[in-house]
Design brief:
metal-binding; Glyas_Fos-R_dOase_dom; 16% helix; 2 domains; Fosfomycin_Res_Enzymes; 2,3-Dihydroxybiphenyl 1,2-Dioxygenase, domain 1; alpha/beta; 4-stranded mixed sheet; 128 residues; YwkD-like_dom
């Protein structure tokens, strides 16, 4: 078996309208499709990132909270590549989203920073 690429990333949110707004309006991901699954009382929102990757945003009634921040076992954070980190931080901060200070990766010498989605999921922005 040979893995080709990441097909999608699934995220469960607690407040669907807030998370939909965050991922589409603030981060600028494009909606591929939106489905309400009545039997699960759940939305599934398919989002495109640069045509290559996809995020599936799910809502479920009363999902459990994230165990701890940010070093819980399992998914640590999502990282998105940006052209200009200063512009990205300015844009996101303009929406009232707190963003950590910009740091430099000591291994790659690239700039990066962190913010969180509406449920506290860590999001990394990494400059190209």
């Amino acid at each position: 078996m040979k893995l080709k690429r990441i097909h999608h990333i699934a995220i469960i949110c607690s407040d669907y309208p807030a998370s939909k707004h965050f991922y589409t309006t603030i981060l600028g991901l494009q909606i591929i499709g939106e489905t309400f699954r009545k039997e699960r009382d759940s939305y599934k929102l398919d989002l495109a990132i640069g045509g290559d990757y996809q995020i599936e945003l799910f809502s479920f009634p009363a999902p459990p909270k994230r165990i701890n921040f940010p070093e819980a076992c399992g998914l640590r954070h999502l990282a998105f590549e940006v052209e200009n980190i200063e512009e990205a931080v300015e844009d996101i901060s303009g929406h009232g989203i707190p963003v950590e200070h910009i740091r430099v990766d000591p291994i790659t010498n690239k700039k990066y920073t962190f913010l969180t989605d509406p449920d506290g999921l860590p999001i990394e922005l990494y400059e190209k």
